[in-house]
Structures are given as structure tokens and as C-alpha cells.
Amino acid sequence: MNKQGDLIVISGFAGAGKGTLVKRLISEYDRFALSISMTTRSPRNGEKDGREYFFVTKEEFEKTIAEDGFLEHACYVGNYYGTPKAYVMEQMSKGKDVILEIEVQGALQIKEKFPQAFLIFVTPPDAETLRKRLIGRGTETPDVVEKRLLRAKEESVLMDRYDAILINDDIDTCVKDAVSYIDAAKASPKRCYEFLERIREELK
Amino acid sequence: MNKQGDLIVISGFAGAGKGTLVKRLISEYDRFALSISMTTRSPRNGEKDGREYFFVTKEEFEKTIAEDGFLEHACYVGNYYGTPKAYVMEQMSKGKDVILEIEVQGALQIKEKFPQAFLIFVTPPDAETLRKRLIGRGTETPDVVEKRLLRAKEESVLMDRYDAILINDDIDTCVKDAVSYIDAAKASPKRCYEFLERIREELK
């Protein structure tokens, strides 16, 4: 309906499967582009600059803040994380729907700046499934699992600030649902403003 | 996601094809139920009580108003028109999505009373197509066509109060899009409130 792409924000509980969802959307659909965050933290084993993150110095990050170069940014445990604006804007202007996988606070910052952004919250069908997935990863101690569930509890309060609740029970269905929701979102008047302007003008 | 059905309001320009759309949704999908309006105007040739409208006396209509029996009602050119509440509520509680085909003012009344109602505005791809369809019907004088276009101009101002703009270029696509938009709308937090309540409770 509109030629400009949309900004798609994906958040969700740790263990909800949003990482897998995002990977599949990017690899299976040419229409999506992935926004890569910038951070001042050090790369972990196997992480590659420009793939997981753009790894920069504190000075470079602060220079980008000063130039108003971020869509959103925040500081966690002494490290900066942010979404560089230029890449997102460039891809959207090419008609790509740009996907941002970010946590709840960042997502709500985006919503405030870009009311036309479409916010998806990924959740398992119930808390028991979430608990099992977190334990099943086998990489987390019981203590960490409990911390993540506590975090999920806090995040669950903000779920209704999102545009769509995406239940990930089966990943194939979840990927298809995500695409359907994104397609349907384009019919919202705030995302087909050009069409409305044009037909109003024609009816004059 | 929720077992309760939703309230779907369909409006659009005269000549946009919303009548055909509604007929096809009702006849092709068992999940939908059609709300029939009540009116005090006389039946026209070929109209049948309980199909196009429920035809009632002024006294019966006013009794229903007094009993708070309408979702919305209005008076046009000396006749009452309204949406009886009981049928809509009954069908929704059975899990049916109830379709109301009503004009813009009534639709916005519904939105105010039921913020979780999903409002679809049907439009042709451009004003020229609308003009051609109105002329092509062959039942309207040029004068009436102009009046309908003037009405369309007025209605176009209120299009952005709707949840979805449905472009009817090809009726088959239009029917499919309507169903997709209605499906996607169910992922909105305000329409899957039961799920949110449950998972929040489970995470406590």
C-alpha cells in the first residue's frame, strides 16, 4: 500500500524464541532487513563485528549520541547499547521492513519517537513452557532461570503497550503469524497515510 | 486466542463494494455472523423482514431505546435505524465474529462504546474508480452520483479513525484481506486480554 518500508520492533521474554523467529524472518523473506545494534561492550567468543553488534569505543558511541545518530540507546551495567538511525532509515526508504530485536524499554522509546512503528511481543503459550525452555537450554543455572522468570514477570506488565501479542507455540506457525501481522499492520491508517492523502485530494 | 468472538464494523464509500464483501464473508465463512439493523422505515420492493432489516413501528423502536437495547442508533430523514444489542452479544458469546455494516457516524459510536471493536473502511483504489462504479450501476442520476461523491469526500476525513483501510481493487483479494486483517486484529492486546491476564497470573 505504501512504498516506504515499516519499522518492526520485536521483543519478548527470554526463552520465548524471538532470536529464532528473527533469524528465520531475515533468512526466508527478502523483504526484511535486520537492524544491528551498536555497543561498547567487548565481543564474546564467536561474535563478529557487524553481525551480532557493531563493536565501538565509548568515544565513538558518544560521538554518535551527540550527532543524534540513534533511534534509541541505553546504558546497561556500564556498557552502551543503541540502534543506529542511518541504516534503518536507508533500508526503509528502499521499501524494506526493518526488524529491530530489542528489549522492552528500548521498544517503548521507539514507539514514542515513531508512533507508526509496529511492536510485536513474543511469548510462549504459558509460563510453564517458558520455564521448561529456560531449563532446557541447559546453559543457565537455576538461579539465572529464576532471575529470567522474575524479569519476565516485570515485562509482562508492559505487554499491552505492544501492537501484537505473538504466541510462539510452534515456530513455523509463529513465523507465518508474524508475517501476517506485519502485512495487516500496513492497512492501519497511520501506515498508509500517503494513500489517504491522495484519495482525499482526488475527492476534492 | 480468545474464545469470545469479536465485533467487526464495516463501513466504506457508497460504490466501494462493501455490500458484496459482507455477503461473501457471511456466505463463505461460518465463523462470521451478520448483525441485522432495526428500522422504522417501510420495506422497499424485494426487502424482507429479518433479512435486510427488522422492520418495526416507531413505538417498538422507542421501547427498545428505553430498554437500552441498541449498540448504536440514529435518526435519518425521519426514520430510526439501530443495531440491536442482544443478537450481537449472543453470537459473540458463541465465538462468532459479528459483522456490522454501518455508516461512519454509527461506526464511531460503536468504537466509543466498544474500544475493542475492529473497524474496517472499504475504499476503491482511487476516486476515479469510485466515480466509474457509481455511474456504472446505471441506477443513479448524475445528480445522485455527485451527492454520493460529496458524501464520500466528507467520509474520507474520518477514515483515519478506523483500524484498517481495505482497498477493494479486486473483490477476491479484498475478501481474503478482510479475513487476514480480522485474524491479525485478534493479536492486539486489547482483544487477547484473557491470555495476558492468565500469563501474568502464572508468572507471579
Supply database-style keywords.
homodimer; 204 residues; alpha/beta; Rossmann fold; 4-stranded mixed sheet; 21% strand
Give a written overview of the molecule.
2 copies of one chain form a homodimer. With 204 residues, chain A is α/β, with parallel strands linked by helices. The first copy, chain A, has a domain at 7-35 and 97-203: P-loop containing nucleotide triphosphate hydrolases (Rossmann fold, 3-Layer(aba) Sandwich). Chain A has 8 helices and 9 strands. In chain A, the strands form 2 sheets. Chain A has a 5-stranded parallel beta sheet with strand order 2-7-1-8-9, with helices on both faces. A 4-stranded mixed beta sheet of chain A has the order 4-3-6-5. The first copy, chain A, is globular. Chain A binds chain B through residues 1, 123, 126-128, 130, 149, 152-153, 156-157, 159-167, 177, 180-181, 183-185, 187-190, 192-193, 195-196, 198-200, 202-204, and chain B through 1, 123, 126-128, 130, 149, 152-153, 156-157, 159-167, 177, 180-181, 183-185, 187-190, 192-193, 195-196, 198-200, 202-204.
Question: Which residues of chain A sit in consecutive blocks of at least 5 with pLDDT less than 50?
Answer: none
For the record, the CATH class of the domain at 7-35 and 97-203 in chain A is Alpha Beta
CATH architecture of the domain at 7-35 and 97-203 in chain A: 3-Layer(aba) Sandwich
- The rounded distance between the terminal residues' Cα atoms of chain A is 21 Å
- Find the CATH topology of the domain at 7-35 and 97-203 in chain A: Rossmann fold
Largest sheet of chain A: 5 strands, parallel
